[in-house]
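Researcher: Hi, I'm a grad student and pretty new to this. My advisor asked me to get structures for two proteins we've been looking at. I'm not sure of the right format, so I'll just paste the first sequence and hope you can take it from there.
Model: That works fine. Here's the first sequence with its C-alpha coordinates right after it:
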Amino acid sequence: MTTKTARLTGSIIRYVLLTLLALMIIVPILWMLSTSFKTEPQTYEPKPSWIPHPFSLVAYEKFFSTYSFGRMLLNSLVTCLASVGICLVFSCLAGYGLTRFRFKGKKQILSFLLLSQMFPSVMLVVPFYAMLSKVHLTNTLFSLIVVYSATNVAFSTWLLVSYFKTIPLELDEAARVDGASHFRIFYNIVLPLVLPGIAAVAMFVLFNGWNEYMYSSVLVSSDRLKTITVGIIALNSQYQIKWNDLMAASAFSSIPLVVLFVCFQKYFIAGMTGGAVKG
Protein backbone atom coordinates (compact mmCIF):
# COMPACT_ATOMS: atom_id res chain seq x y z
CA MET A 1 0.00 0.00 0.00
CA THR A 2 1.43 3.33 -1.04
CA THR A 3 1.70 6.33 1.28
CA LYS A 4 -0.98 8.22 -0.65
CA THR A 5 -3.40 5.27 -0.41
CA ALA A 6 -2.72 4.89 3.32
CA ARG A 7 -3.44 8.57 3.90
CA LEU A 8 -6.65 8.38 1.88
CA THR A 9 -7.80 5.29 3.79
CA GLY A 10 -7.03 6.97 7.11
CA SER A 11 -8.97 10.08 6.09
CA ILE A 12 -11.98 8.01 5.03
CA ILE A 13 -11.98 6.12 8.34
CA ARG A 14 -11.74 9.35 10.32
CA TYR A 15 -14.60 10.98 8.42
CA VAL A 16 -16.79 7.90 8.80
CA LEU A 17 -16.18 7.82 12.55
CA LEU A 18 -16.82 11.54 12.86
CA THR A 19 -20.04 11.21 10.85
CA LEU A 20 -21.26 8.39 13.09
CA LEU A 21 -20.46 10.40 16.21
CA ALA A 22 -22.25 13.43 14.78
CA LEU A 23 -25.32 11.33 13.97
CA MET A 24 -25.36 9.99 17.54
CA ILE A 25 -25.75 13.59 18.71
CA ILE A 26 -27.94 15.03 15.94
CA VAL A 27 -30.54 12.23 15.65
CA PRO A 28 -31.78 12.48 19.29
CA ILE A 29 -32.02 16.28 18.94
CA LEU A 30 -34.07 15.97 15.75
CA TRP A 31 -36.32 13.39 17.39
CA MET A 32 -36.81 15.72 20.35
CA LEU A 33 -37.90 18.54 18.04
CA SER A 34 -40.17 16.22 16.06
CA THR A 35 -41.88 14.91 19.20
CA SER A 36 -42.38 18.42 20.59
CA PHE A 37 -44.61 19.30 17.62
CA LYS A 38 -46.80 16.21 17.98
CA THR A 39 -50.06 15.78 19.82
CA GLU A 40 -50.15 13.48 22.83
CA PRO A 41 -51.91 10.58 21.00
CA GLN A 42 -49.26 10.73 18.26
CA THR A 43 -46.48 10.04 20.75
CA TYR A 44 -48.05 6.67 21.61
CA GLU A 45 -48.61 5.46 18.04
CA PRO A 46 -47.29 1.94 17.31
CA LYS A 47 -45.42 3.21 14.26
CA PRO A 48 -43.73 6.48 15.22
CA SER A 49 -43.13 9.00 12.45
CA TRP A 50 -40.50 11.70 12.08
CA ILE A 51 -42.87 14.27 10.57
CA PRO A 52 -45.76 15.28 12.86
CA HIS A 53 -49.20 15.01 11.31
CA PRO A 54 -50.94 17.18 12.24
CA PHE A 55 -48.35 19.80 13.18
CA SER A 56 -49.21 20.99 16.71
CA LEU A 57 -47.99 23.80 18.97
CA VAL A 58 -50.05 22.74 21.97
CA ALA A 59 -47.02 21.48 23.90
CA TYR A 60 -45.27 24.85 23.51
CA GLU A 61 -48.41 26.71 24.60
CA LYS A 62 -48.48 24.65 27.78
CA PHE A 63 -44.90 25.73 28.53
CA PHE A 64 -46.12 29.08 29.92
CA SER A 65 -49.83 28.50 30.54
CA THR A 66 -50.16 25.09 32.21
CA TYR A 67 -46.71 24.44 33.69
CA SER A 68 -45.57 28.03 34.44
CA PHE A 69 -42.09 27.34 33.09
CA GLY A 70 -41.57 31.06 32.57
CA ARG A 71 -40.96 31.50 36.30
CA MET A 72 -38.63 28.52 36.33
CA LEU A 73 -36.65 29.97 33.43
CA LEU A 74 -36.25 33.20 35.37
CA ASN A 75 -35.07 31.30 38.47
CA SER A 76 -32.49 29.41 36.42
CA LEU A 77 -31.35 32.61 34.76
CA VAL A 78 -30.90 34.44 38.07
CA THR A 79 -28.96 31.62 39.75
CA CYS A 80 -26.76 30.93 36.75
CA LEU A 81 -25.84 34.55 36.01
CA ALA A 82 -25.11 35.24 39.67
CA SER A 83 -22.88 32.17 39.97
CA VAL A 84 -21.10 33.11 36.73
CA GLY A 85 -20.36 36.58 38.11
CA ILE A 86 -19.06 35.24 41.43
CA CYS A 87 -16.89 32.59 39.77
CA LEU A 88 -15.40 35.09 37.34
CA VAL A 89 -14.49 37.57 40.08
CA PHE A 90 -12.82 35.02 42.35
CA SER A 91 -11.19 32.90 39.63
CA CYS A 92 -9.74 35.94 37.85
CA LEU A 93 -8.27 37.33 41.05
CA ALA A 94 -6.97 33.92 42.13
CA GLY A 95 -5.55 33.15 38.69
CA TYR A 96 -3.73 36.48 38.60
CA GLY A 97 -2.36 36.04 42.11
CA LEU A 98 -1.18 32.47 41.53
CA THR A 99 0.72 33.43 38.37
CA ARG A 100 2.06 36.86 39.38
CA PHE A 101 3.14 36.47 43.01
CA ARG A 102 5.59 34.16 44.77
CA PHE A 103 4.51 32.70 48.10
CA LYS A 104 4.75 29.46 50.02
CA GLY A 105 2.17 26.84 49.24
CA LYS A 106 1.40 27.99 45.71
CA LYS A 107 1.96 24.54 44.21
CA GLN A 108 -0.13 22.98 46.96
CA ILE A 109 -3.01 25.34 46.18
CA LEU A 110 -2.93 24.37 42.51
CA SER A 111 -2.87 20.70 43.47
CA PHE A 112 -5.79 21.25 45.83
CA LEU A 113 -7.81 22.92 43.07
CA LEU A 114 -7.32 19.89 40.86
CA LEU A 115 -7.95 17.44 43.73
CA SER A 116 -11.27 19.11 44.60
CA GLN A 117 -12.65 18.18 41.19
CA MET A 118 -12.17 14.46 41.82
CA PHE A 119 -15.07 14.15 44.28
CA PRO A 120 -18.47 13.30 42.77
CA SER A 121 -21.23 15.84 43.33
CA VAL A 122 -23.44 13.32 45.10
CA MET A 123 -20.95 13.23 47.99
CA LEU A 124 -21.43 16.96 48.58
CA VAL A 125 -25.23 17.10 48.70
CA VAL A 126 -25.57 16.21 52.39
CA PRO A 127 -22.71 18.49 53.60
CA PHE A 128 -24.07 21.41 51.57
CA TYR A 129 -27.59 20.84 52.90
CA ALA A 130 -26.35 20.56 56.48
CA MET A 131 -24.32 23.77 56.30
CA LEU A 132 -26.99 25.80 54.52
CA SER A 133 -29.77 24.61 56.83
CA LYS A 134 -27.82 25.78 59.89
CA VAL A 135 -27.78 29.34 58.53
CA HIS A 136 -31.39 29.05 57.29
CA LEU A 137 -30.53 29.42 53.60
CA THR A 138 -32.23 26.30 52.27
CA ASN A 139 -35.24 26.75 50.00
CA THR A 140 -33.80 29.98 48.59
CA LEU A 141 -32.23 30.87 45.27
CA PHE A 142 -29.24 32.20 47.20
CA SER A 143 -28.45 28.65 48.35
CA LEU A 144 -28.22 27.53 44.71
CA ILE A 145 -26.01 30.49 43.88
CA VAL A 146 -23.65 29.57 46.73
CA VAL A 147 -23.51 25.90 45.71
CA TYR A 148 -23.06 26.57 42.00
CA SER A 149 -20.28 29.04 42.73
CA ALA A 150 -18.53 26.72 45.18
CA THR A 151 -18.61 23.72 42.86
CA ASN A 152 -17.34 25.64 39.80
CA VAL A 153 -14.82 28.13 41.16
CA ALA A 154 -11.99 25.56 41.50
CA PHE A 155 -12.07 24.46 37.87
CA SER A 156 -12.59 28.06 36.75
CA THR A 157 -9.46 29.11 38.63
CA TRP A 158 -7.47 26.17 37.30
CA LEU A 159 -8.47 27.01 33.74
CA LEU A 160 -7.66 30.71 34.10
CA VAL A 161 -4.30 29.96 35.74
CA SER A 162 -3.30 28.17 32.53
CA TYR A 163 -4.37 31.19 30.54
CA PHE A 164 -2.75 33.81 32.80
CA LYS A 165 0.55 31.95 32.34
CA THR A 166 0.48 32.83 28.64
CA ILE A 167 0.69 36.56 29.44
CA PRO A 168 4.37 37.64 29.64
CA LEU A 169 5.53 39.01 32.97
CA GLU A 170 7.40 41.73 31.08
CA LEU A 171 4.09 43.53 30.57
CA ASP A 172 3.59 43.75 34.32
CA GLU A 173 7.15 44.93 34.89
CA ALA A 174 6.89 47.63 32.22
CA ALA A 175 3.62 48.90 33.71
CA ARG A 176 5.08 48.84 37.22
CA VAL A 177 8.01 50.98 36.05
CA ASP A 178 5.45 53.51 34.81
CA GLY A 179 3.93 53.61 38.28
CA ALA A 180 0.88 51.39 37.80
CA SER A 181 -0.47 49.54 40.83
CA HIS A 182 -1.09 45.79 40.92
CA PHE A 183 -4.85 46.29 40.54
CA ARG A 184 -4.40 48.67 37.59
CA ILE A 185 -2.07 46.17 35.90
CA PHE A 186 -4.59 43.41 36.51
CA TYR A 187 -7.66 45.36 35.36
CA ASN A 188 -6.31 47.44 32.48
CA ILE A 189 -3.51 45.31 31.02
CA VAL A 190 -3.75 41.61 31.90
CA LEU A 191 -7.52 41.10 32.10
CA PRO A 192 -8.29 42.28 28.53
CA LEU A 193 -5.73 39.79 27.21
CA VAL A 194 -7.47 36.81 28.81
CA LEU A 195 -10.98 37.56 27.54
CA PRO A 196 -11.19 34.28 25.58
CA GLY A 197 -10.41 32.37 28.76
CA ILE A 198 -12.96 34.41 30.70
CA ALA A 199 -15.58 33.66 28.03
CA ALA A 200 -14.79 29.94 28.27
CA VAL A 201 -15.13 29.99 32.05
CA ALA A 202 -18.39 31.96 31.88
CA MET A 203 -19.96 29.51 29.44
CA PHE A 204 -18.69 26.52 31.40
CA VAL A 205 -20.24 27.76 34.65
CA LEU A 206 -23.44 28.83 32.89
CA PHE A 207 -23.90 25.45 31.19
CA ASN A 208 -23.23 23.56 34.43
CA GLY A 209 -25.72 25.64 36.40
CA TRP A 210 -28.39 25.58 33.71
CA ASN A 211 -28.31 21.78 33.38
CA GLU A 212 -27.88 21.01 37.10
CA TYR A 213 -30.65 19.00 38.76
CA MET A 214 -29.44 17.30 41.94
CA TYR A 215 -28.71 20.35 44.11
CA SER A 216 -31.74 22.30 42.89
CA SER A 217 -34.08 19.40 43.67
CA VAL A 218 -32.68 18.88 47.19
CA LEU A 219 -32.03 22.45 48.36
CA VAL A 220 -35.22 24.02 46.97
CA SER A 221 -38.71 22.71 47.74
CA SER A 222 -40.92 25.70 46.97
CA ASP A 223 -42.71 25.56 43.62
CA ARG A 224 -42.10 29.23 42.88
CA LEU A 225 -38.31 28.76 43.32
CA LYS A 226 -37.85 25.65 41.21
CA THR A 227 -35.44 25.76 38.29
CA ILE A 228 -36.16 24.66 34.74
CA THR A 229 -34.48 21.27 35.09
CA VAL A 230 -36.59 20.36 38.11
CA GLY A 231 -39.73 21.40 36.23
CA ILE A 232 -38.83 19.28 33.22
CA ILE A 233 -38.12 16.19 35.31
CA ALA A 234 -41.46 16.69 37.08
CA LEU A 235 -43.22 15.97 33.77
CA ASN A 236 -41.95 12.40 34.10
CA SER A 237 -44.60 11.26 36.55
CA GLN A 238 -45.10 7.83 38.09
CA TYR A 239 -48.16 6.94 36.02
CA GLN A 240 -47.65 8.80 32.73
CA ILE A 241 -44.97 10.50 30.68
CA LYS A 242 -46.23 13.29 28.45
CA TRP A 243 -43.54 12.98 25.82
CA ASN A 244 -44.64 15.91 23.67
CA ASP A 245 -44.73 18.29 26.67
CA LEU A 246 -41.42 16.91 27.92
CA MET A 247 -39.71 17.35 24.56
CA ALA A 248 -41.16 20.84 24.05
CA ALA A 249 -39.91 21.94 27.47
CA SER A 250 -36.48 20.45 26.77
CA ALA A 251 -36.27 22.14 23.37
CA PHE A 252 -37.40 25.52 24.71
CA SER A 253 -34.99 25.41 27.64
CA SER A 254 -32.12 24.64 25.26
CA ILE A 255 -32.64 27.81 23.21
CA PRO A 256 -30.70 30.20 25.52
CA LEU A 257 -27.68 27.88 25.63
CA VAL A 258 -27.71 27.33 21.87
CA VAL A 259 -27.93 31.06 21.17
CA LEU A 260 -25.11 31.86 23.59
CA PHE A 261 -22.87 29.14 22.19
CA VAL A 262 -23.47 30.21 18.58
CA CYS A 263 -22.73 33.85 19.42
CA PHE A 264 -19.64 33.19 21.55
CA GLN A 265 -18.29 29.89 20.24
CA LYS A 266 -15.20 31.64 18.85
CA TYR A 267 -14.21 32.86 22.31
CA PHE A 268 -15.20 29.58 23.96
CA ILE A 269 -13.03 27.45 21.64
CA ALA A 270 -10.15 29.92 21.82
CA GLY A 271 -10.32 29.96 25.60
CA MET A 272 -10.40 26.20 26.00
CA THR A 273 -7.66 25.42 23.45
CA GLY A 274 -5.50 28.46 24.18
CA GLY A 275 -5.24 27.80 27.91
CA ALA A 276 -4.67 24.09 27.37
CA VAL A 277 -1.97 24.38 24.73
CA LYS A 278 -0.07 27.41 25.93
CA GLY A 279 -0.35 26.66 29.64
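Researcher: Oh nice, that was easy. Here's the second one.
Model: And its structure:
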Amino acid sequence: MSKIVTFGEIMLRLSPEGNDRFIQTDSFRIIPGGGEANVAVSLANYGHQACYVTKLPDHEIGQIAVNALRRYGVDTSYIRRGGERIGLYYAETGASMRPSKVIYDRAHSAIAEAGPEDFDFDAIMKGATWFHWSGITPAISDKAAHLTELACQAAKRNGVTVSVDLNFRKKLWTSEKAISVMRPLMKYVDVCIGNEEDAQLCLGFKPDADVEGGNTDAKGYEGIFTRMQKEFGFKYVVSTLRESFSATRNGWKALIYDGKQFYQSKRYEIDPIIDRVGGGDSFSGGLIHGMLKYPGDQASALEFAVAASALKHTVNGDFNLVSEAEVLALMSGSSNGRVQR
Protein backbone atom coordinates (compact mmCIF):
# COMPACT_ATOMS: atom_id res chain seq x y z
CA MET A 1 0.00 0.00 0.00
CA SER A 2 1.44 3.35 -1.05
CA LYS A 3 0.94 6.68 0.68
CA ILE A 4 -0.46 9.07 -1.92
CA VAL A 5 -1.12 12.75 -1.21
CA THR A 6 -3.60 14.94 -3.08
CA PHE A 7 -4.19 18.64 -2.46
CA GLY A 8 -7.06 20.88 -3.50
CA GLU A 9 -10.60 22.00 -2.78
CA ILE A 10 -13.53 19.76 -1.95
CA MET A 11 -16.90 21.40 -2.49
CA LEU A 12 -20.54 20.55 -2.04
CA ARG A 13 -22.29 19.91 -5.33
CA LEU A 14 -25.98 20.84 -5.37
CA SER A 15 -27.91 19.04 -8.09
CA PRO A 16 -31.58 18.73 -9.04
CA GLU A 17 -33.03 15.24 -9.10
CA GLY A 18 -32.49 13.32 -12.32
CA ASN A 19 -32.45 15.53 -15.38
CA ASP A 20 -34.48 18.38 -13.88
CA ARG A 21 -33.36 21.89 -14.74
CA PHE A 22 -32.28 24.40 -12.09
CA ILE A 23 -35.32 26.59 -12.62
CA GLN A 24 -37.84 23.77 -12.15
CA THR A 25 -36.42 22.03 -9.10
CA ASP A 26 -37.72 22.38 -5.54
CA SER A 27 -34.78 20.63 -3.87
CA PHE A 28 -31.11 19.86 -4.39
CA ARG A 29 -29.10 16.75 -3.59
CA ILE A 30 -25.88 17.43 -1.68
CA ILE A 31 -22.95 15.60 -3.31
CA PRO A 32 -19.42 16.28 -1.96
CA GLY A 33 -16.65 16.29 -4.53
CA GLY A 34 -13.73 18.11 -6.13
CA GLY A 35 -10.86 17.19 -8.44
CA GLU A 36 -8.19 15.97 -6.06
CA ALA A 37 -10.70 14.65 -3.51
CA ASN A 38 -12.19 12.49 -6.26
CA VAL A 39 -8.72 11.13 -7.06
CA ALA A 40 -8.14 10.34 -3.38
CA VAL A 41 -11.38 8.35 -3.15
CA SER A 42 -10.43 6.30 -6.22
CA LEU A 43 -7.03 5.49 -4.75
CA ALA A 44 -8.50 4.56 -1.37
CA ASN A 45 -10.84 2.16 -3.18
CA TYR A 46 -7.77 0.54 -4.79
CA GLY A 47 -6.22 -0.05 -1.37
CA HIS A 48 -3.80 2.86 -1.01
CA GLN A 49 -3.30 5.20 1.94
CA ALA A 50 -4.87 8.18 0.17
CA CYS A 51 -4.22 11.39 2.10
CA TYR A 52 -6.28 14.43 1.14
CA VAL A 53 -5.06 17.91 2.08
CA THR A 54 -7.32 20.95 2.20
CA LYS A 55 -8.85 23.49 4.59
CA LEU A 56 -12.51 23.39 5.58
CA PRO A 57 -14.66 25.46 7.97
CA ASP A 58 -14.92 24.11 11.49
CA HIS A 59 -18.68 23.67 11.46
CA GLU A 60 -21.23 21.05 10.45
CA ILE A 61 -21.30 21.98 6.76
CA GLY A 62 -17.54 21.53 6.52
CA GLN A 63 -17.95 18.25 8.39
CA ILE A 64 -20.20 16.94 5.60
CA ALA A 65 -17.19 16.93 3.28
CA VAL A 66 -14.87 15.37 5.87
CA ASN A 67 -17.38 12.61 6.61
CA ALA A 68 -17.81 11.85 2.90
CA LEU A 69 -14.07 11.30 2.52
CA ARG A 70 -13.85 9.18 5.66
CA ARG A 71 -16.75 7.03 4.47
CA TYR A 72 -14.66 5.83 1.55
CA GLY A 73 -11.42 5.34 3.45
CA VAL A 74 -9.56 8.57 2.70
CA ASP A 75 -7.04 9.76 5.33
CA THR A 76 -8.33 13.16 6.51
CA SER A 77 -5.73 13.77 9.21
CA TYR A 78 -4.01 16.52 7.19
CA ILE A 79 -7.19 18.55 6.66
CA ARG A 80 -6.95 21.92 8.40
CA ARG A 81 -10.13 23.30 9.94
CA GLY A 82 -10.95 27.01 9.84
CA GLY A 83 -12.04 29.74 7.46
CA GLU A 84 -15.47 31.10 6.71
CA ARG A 85 -17.06 28.86 4.10
CA ILE A 86 -16.95 25.75 1.97
CA GLY A 87 -17.14 26.16 -1.78
CA LEU A 88 -20.38 25.23 -3.55
CA TYR A 89 -21.25 24.43 -7.10
CA TYR A 90 -24.53 23.74 -8.79
CA ALA A 91 -24.63 21.02 -11.46
CA GLU A 92 -27.50 20.43 -13.86
CA THR A 93 -27.33 17.07 -15.63
CA GLY A 94 -27.84 17.29 -19.38
CA ALA A 95 -29.50 14.80 -21.69
CA SER A 96 -29.26 14.07 -25.40
CA MET A 97 -28.36 17.34 -27.16
CA ARG A 98 -28.77 19.48 -23.99
CA PRO A 99 -25.37 19.77 -22.26
CA SER A 100 -24.77 19.62 -18.54
CA LYS A 101 -24.24 22.96 -16.82
CA VAL A 102 -22.15 24.05 -13.83
CA ILE A 103 -22.48 27.26 -11.80
CA TYR A 104 -19.81 28.01 -9.18
CA ASP A 105 -20.29 29.65 -5.79
CA ARG A 106 -16.83 29.15 -4.37
CA ALA A 107 -15.23 32.60 -3.93
CA HIS A 108 -13.46 33.16 -0.59
CA SER A 109 -13.70 29.52 0.46
CA ALA A 110 -11.51 28.31 3.31
CA ILE A 111 -8.86 26.80 1.03
CA ALA A 112 -8.85 29.88 -1.22
CA GLU A 113 -7.94 32.00 1.82
CA ALA A 114 -5.48 29.51 3.39
CA GLY A 115 -1.82 30.43 3.90
CA PRO A 116 1.54 28.66 4.29
CA GLU A 117 1.10 28.60 8.07
CA ASP A 118 -1.79 26.15 7.65
CA PHE A 119 0.26 23.25 6.24
CA ASP A 120 3.60 21.60 7.02
CA PHE A 121 4.10 20.12 3.57
CA ASP A 122 7.40 18.44 4.42
CA ALA A 123 5.69 16.52 7.22
CA ILE A 124 2.77 15.73 4.91
CA MET A 125 5.05 14.39 2.15
CA LYS A 126 7.16 12.27 4.51
CA GLY A 127 6.88 8.64 3.48
CA ALA A 128 4.72 9.44 0.45
CA THR A 129 5.20 7.77 -2.92
CA TRP A 130 3.09 10.13 -5.03
CA PHE A 131 1.66 13.66 -4.96
CA HIS A 132 -1.22 14.71 -7.23
CA TRP A 133 -2.74 18.13 -7.88
CA SER A 134 -4.77 19.73 -10.63
CA GLY A 135 -4.94 23.05 -12.45
CA ILE A 136 -8.15 23.84 -10.60
CA THR A 137 -6.28 24.45 -7.33
CA PRO A 138 -3.98 27.32 -8.42
CA ALA A 139 -6.96 28.79 -10.31
CA ILE A 140 -8.92 29.22 -7.07
CA SER A 141 -6.79 32.12 -5.79
CA ASP A 142 -3.25 33.49 -5.81
CA LYS A 143 -2.86 32.13 -2.27
CA ALA A 144 -3.86 28.65 -3.43
CA ALA A 145 -1.40 28.92 -6.33
CA HIS A 146 1.39 29.71 -3.87
CA LEU A 147 0.41 26.76 -1.67
CA THR A 148 0.46 24.49 -4.72
CA GLU A 149 4.04 25.52 -5.45
CA LEU A 150 5.07 24.97 -1.82
CA ALA A 151 3.51 21.50 -1.92
CA CYS A 152 5.34 20.64 -5.15
CA GLN A 153 8.65 21.84 -3.72
CA ALA A 154 8.15 19.71 -0.61
CA ALA A 155 7.31 16.71 -2.76
CA LYS A 156 10.53 17.11 -4.73
CA ARG A 157 12.58 17.51 -1.52
CA ASN A 158 11.12 14.25 -0.27
CA GLY A 159 11.63 12.27 -3.49
CA VAL A 160 7.92 12.04 -4.26
CA THR A 161 6.60 11.53 -7.81
CA VAL A 162 4.40 14.47 -8.86
CA SER A 163 1.46 14.31 -11.26
CA VAL A 164 -0.81 17.08 -12.51
CA ASP A 165 -4.15 17.05 -14.26
CA LEU A 166 -4.10 20.38 -16.13
CA ASN A 167 -7.90 20.79 -15.84
CA PHE A 168 -8.47 24.27 -17.31
CA ARG A 169 -11.62 25.96 -15.98
CA LYS A 170 -12.62 29.05 -17.95
CA LYS A 171 -15.00 30.17 -15.19
CA LEU A 172 -12.05 30.45 -12.78
CA TRP A 173 -9.36 32.19 -14.85
CA THR A 174 -8.27 33.23 -18.31
CA SER A 175 -5.90 31.28 -20.51
CA GLU A 176 -3.31 34.05 -20.17
CA LYS A 177 -3.38 33.84 -16.37
CA ALA A 178 -3.36 30.04 -16.48
CA ILE A 179 -0.27 29.95 -18.71
CA SER A 180 1.58 32.46 -16.50
CA VAL A 181 0.93 30.36 -13.39
CA MET A 182 0.98 26.81 -14.74
CA ARG A 183 4.07 26.83 -16.93
CA PRO A 184 6.46 27.64 -14.05
CA LEU A 185 4.91 24.83 -11.99
CA MET A 186 5.65 22.24 -14.67
CA LYS A 187 9.30 21.94 -13.60
CA TYR A 188 8.10 19.95 -10.58
CA VAL A 189 5.91 17.56 -12.60
CA ASP A 190 6.79 14.00 -13.60
CA VAL A 191 3.44 12.93 -15.08
CA CYS A 192 1.35 15.46 -17.01
CA ILE A 193 -2.30 14.60 -17.68
CA GLY A 194 -4.71 16.67 -19.76
CA ASN A 195 -6.84 16.81 -22.85
CA GLU A 196 -6.21 18.86 -25.98
CA GLU A 197 -8.00 21.95 -24.59
CA ASP A 198 -6.07 21.83 -21.32
CA ALA A 199 -2.71 21.63 -23.10
CA GLN A 200 -3.55 24.64 -25.24
CA LEU A 201 -5.15 26.87 -22.61
CA CYS A 202 -2.84 26.01 -19.68
CA LEU A 203 0.50 25.54 -21.45
CA GLY A 204 0.10 27.06 -24.91
CA PHE A 205 0.41 23.81 -26.90
CA LYS A 206 -2.09 22.99 -29.63
CA PRO A 207 -2.45 19.47 -31.08
CA ASP A 208 -2.83 18.86 -34.77
CA ALA A 209 -6.23 17.22 -34.32
CA ASP A 210 -9.81 18.37 -34.90
CA VAL A 211 -11.34 16.93 -31.75
CA GLU A 212 -14.58 18.87 -32.06
CA GLY A 213 -14.97 17.36 -35.52
CA GLY A 214 -14.44 13.87 -34.14
CA ASN A 215 -10.81 13.43 -35.24
CA THR A 216 -9.08 11.92 -32.21
CA ASP A 217 -6.43 9.96 -34.06
CA ALA A 218 -3.27 9.56 -32.00
CA LYS A 219 -1.04 10.95 -34.73
CA GLY A 220 -2.44 14.43 -34.14
CA TYR A 221 -1.02 14.32 -30.61
CA GLU A 222 2.45 12.94 -31.22
CA GLY A 223 3.96 16.29 -32.12
CA ILE A 224 2.55 18.14 -29.10
CA PHE A 225 3.49 15.32 -26.70
CA THR A 226 7.05 15.33 -28.00
CA ARG A 227 7.34 19.11 -27.61
CA MET A 228 5.84 19.09 -24.12
CA GLN A 229 8.15 16.31 -22.99
CA LYS A 230 11.17 18.07 -24.42
CA GLU A 231 10.35 21.48 -22.93
CA PHE A 232 9.33 20.42 -19.43
CA GLY A 233 11.12 17.09 -18.98
CA PHE A 234 7.99 15.11 -18.17
CA LYS A 235 8.51 11.38 -17.68
CA TYR A 236 5.04 10.75 -19.08
CA VAL A 237 2.58 12.86 -21.07
CA VAL A 238 -0.99 11.59 -21.05
CA SER A 239 -4.20 12.75 -22.72
CA THR A 240 -7.77 11.57 -22.56
CA LEU A 241 -9.58 11.63 -25.90
CA ARG A 242 -13.32 12.17 -25.55
CA GLU A 243 -15.72 12.01 -28.48
CA SER A 244 -18.88 13.81 -27.38
CA PHE A 245 -21.81 12.67 -29.51
CA SER A 246 -24.36 13.88 -26.96
CA ALA A 247 -24.64 14.54 -23.22
CA THR A 248 -25.41 10.86 -22.71
CA ARG A 249 -23.21 9.17 -25.33
CA ASN A 250 -19.43 9.53 -25.51
CA GLY A 251 -16.48 7.70 -27.02
CA TRP A 252 -13.58 7.40 -24.56
CA LYS A 253 -9.93 6.45 -24.96
CA ALA A 254 -6.49 7.83 -24.05
CA LEU A 255 -2.91 8.22 -25.21
CA ILE A 256 0.39 8.05 -23.31
CA TYR A 257 3.99 8.88 -24.23
CA ASP A 258 7.07 7.98 -22.17
CA GLY A 259 9.62 9.87 -24.27
CA LYS A 260 10.22 6.81 -26.47
CA GLN A 261 6.94 5.24 -27.48
CA PHE A 262 3.33 6.33 -27.94
CA TYR A 263 0.55 4.02 -26.84
CA GLN A 264 -3.15 4.43 -27.57
CA SER A 265 -5.69 2.62 -25.40
CA LYS A 266 -8.74 0.59 -26.24
CA ARG A 267 -11.79 2.74 -27.05
CA TYR A 268 -14.99 2.51 -25.00
CA GLU A 269 -18.44 3.54 -26.13
CA ILE A 270 -20.23 4.93 -23.05
CA ASP A 271 -23.99 4.91 -23.58
CA PRO A 272 -25.86 5.95 -21.57
CA ILE A 273 -23.74 8.19 -19.36
CA ILE A 274 -25.19 8.32 -15.85
CA ASP A 275 -22.87 11.07 -14.53
CA ARG A 276 -19.73 12.34 -16.25
CA VAL A 277 -18.67 14.70 -13.44
CA GLY A 278 -15.42 13.33 -12.03
CA GLY A 279 -14.69 11.27 -15.15
CA GLY A 280 -11.29 12.88 -15.65
CA ASP A 281 -10.44 12.54 -11.96
CA SER A 282 -11.27 8.84 -12.06
CA PHE A 283 -8.86 8.57 -14.99
CA SER A 284 -6.10 10.26 -12.97
CA GLY A 285 -6.72 7.98 -9.99
CA GLY A 286 -6.69 4.94 -12.25
CA LEU A 287 -3.49 6.05 -13.94
CA ILE A 288 -1.66 6.60 -10.66
CA HIS A 289 -2.73 3.17 -9.42
CA GLY A 290 -1.88 1.62 -12.78
CA MET A 291 1.62 3.10 -12.78
CA LEU A 292 2.23 1.78 -9.26
CA LYS A 293 0.73 -1.63 -10.06
CA TYR A 294 2.50 -2.03 -13.42
CA PRO A 295 5.83 -0.19 -13.02
CA GLY A 296 7.45 0.47 -16.38
CA ASP A 297 4.41 -0.85 -18.29
CA GLN A 298 2.72 2.29 -19.58
CA ALA A 299 0.28 0.32 -21.73
CA SER A 300 -1.22 -1.62 -18.81
CA ALA A 301 -1.30 1.50 -16.64
CA LEU A 302 -3.20 3.40 -19.32
CA GLU A 303 -5.65 0.57 -19.96
CA PHE A 304 -6.45 0.44 -16.25
CA ALA A 305 -7.05 4.20 -16.17
CA VAL A 306 -9.33 4.20 -19.22
CA ALA A 307 -11.37 1.25 -17.96
CA ALA A 308 -11.70 2.83 -14.51
CA SER A 309 -12.91 6.13 -15.92
CA ALA A 310 -15.31 4.43 -18.33
CA LEU A 311 -16.91 2.74 -15.33
CA LYS A 312 -17.09 6.05 -13.45
CA HIS A 313 -19.47 7.39 -16.10
CA THR A 314 -21.99 4.81 -14.85
CA VAL A 315 -21.86 6.01 -11.21
CA ASN A 316 -23.83 8.91 -9.76
CA GLY A 317 -21.85 11.56 -7.88
CA ASP A 318 -18.28 12.83 -8.17
CA PHE A 319 -16.57 9.76 -6.67
CA ASN A 320 -15.62 6.65 -8.64
CA LEU A 321 -16.99 3.91 -6.40
CA VAL A 322 -15.56 0.89 -8.20
CA SER A 323 -13.06 -1.71 -7.01
CA GLU A 324 -9.85 -2.81 -8.63
CA ALA A 325 -11.48 -6.17 -9.43
CA GLU A 326 -14.29 -4.46 -11.34
CA VAL A 327 -11.81 -2.44 -13.38
CA LEU A 328 -9.72 -5.52 -14.16
CA ALA A 329 -12.86 -7.36 -15.27
CA LEU A 330 -13.68 -4.60 -17.76
CA MET A 331 -10.06 -4.53 -18.96
CA SER A 332 -10.31 -8.25 -19.69
CA GLY A 333 -13.41 -7.72 -21.84
CA SER A 334 -16.32 -8.19 -19.43
CA SER A 335 -18.62 -5.36 -20.50
CA ASN A 336 -21.99 -6.99 -21.13
CA GLY A 337 -23.52 -5.80 -17.86
CA ARG A 338 -24.92 -9.21 -16.90
CA VAL A 339 -25.98 -9.62 -13.28
CA GLN A 340 -23.16 -11.00 -11.12
CA ARG A 341 -24.61 -13.86 -9.04
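Researcher: Is there anything I should tell my advisor about the second?
Model: You could mention this: The two ends are 30 Å apart (CA to CA).
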